[in-house]
Amino acid sequence: MITGTSTEVGKTVVTAAIAAAAMASGATVAVCKPAQTGVGPDDSGDVDEVIRLSGVTTTSELYRFRDPLAPARAAVREGAAPVDLQTVLNGVRALDDHELTLVEGAGGVLVRLAPDITMLDVAAGLGAPLLVVAGAGLGTLNHTELTTSAIKAAGLECAGIVIGSWPSEPGLAEECNLDDLPELTGVPVIGRIPAEAGSLLRSSFTSQASGWFDPDWLAGL
To answer: What angle do CA 28, 18, 58 make, to 5 degrees?
Structure first.
């Protein structure tokens, strides 16, 4: 499961990059987005962006709501049925014939999919480790430590931290955070995605993706 310290930290591009890197090694990959918000019925969503960048062909989006809000609130405003945990679990498990299934969350781990469901509940139901996508600059230490602490408190595995948008010219804070993030969280930084990666053509994105992650981590994946 790919989660984040907040919204707009780069989860979709990270999901695409892992998919591309895994497929480059010969693995079969599927991607699931349990709940997408802020899009209309015919609008492109995060899954479409993952397809555009990585070329993955097996994808699933289980719920979609128009308002750019947490799924629980978006469903209420739309008068739609809330996200059902068992439906999500069944939707992800339907992809089990692939060697790797990536589940992209909505916002952070405690964002409500429904009034009584968070991404932690989905991860627990699947027995899935969580990969945390974090910012590069000031504020990321607090946000990332809070996120990894919530994961550990739920008895779940944190598979690593990925910097979702690494600047081409990192400053002092960014460079120091590479050392401080693993020290404070006890979780390794296993990848850095260049800030411009999401604007690349698929051919460039897929050829570069493997180089954005720790090779030992990729091999273990």
So the answer is: 40
